[in-house]
Amino acid sequence: MRIVHLADTHLGFRQFHRTDDRGRNIRELDVYAAFGAAVEKAIELRPAAVIHAGDLFDSYHPSSAALAVALDGISRLCEAGIPSVFIAGNHSTPRAASAEHVFGLLERFDRSGLVHAVHEGPAAVRIGGLAVHAVPHHNDAGRLAEQLRAAQPAADADFNVCVTHMGLGGMGNVGAAEAGSLTLSGEELEAVGDFDYVALGHLHKADRVRINAAYSGSLERLSWADDAREKGITEIDLTADPLGGGYYVRHSVPARRRVQLDPIDAARVEDLTAAIAAAAERDDLDAAIAKLAVRNVTAAAAGGIDRHAVDEAFRACLHFELEVEAVNEGGGGTALAPLELRDFLVGRAPSGLDAGEFVTRAEGYLERAAEELAG
Question: Could you tell me the pTM of the whole model?
Answer without folding.
Answer: 0.85
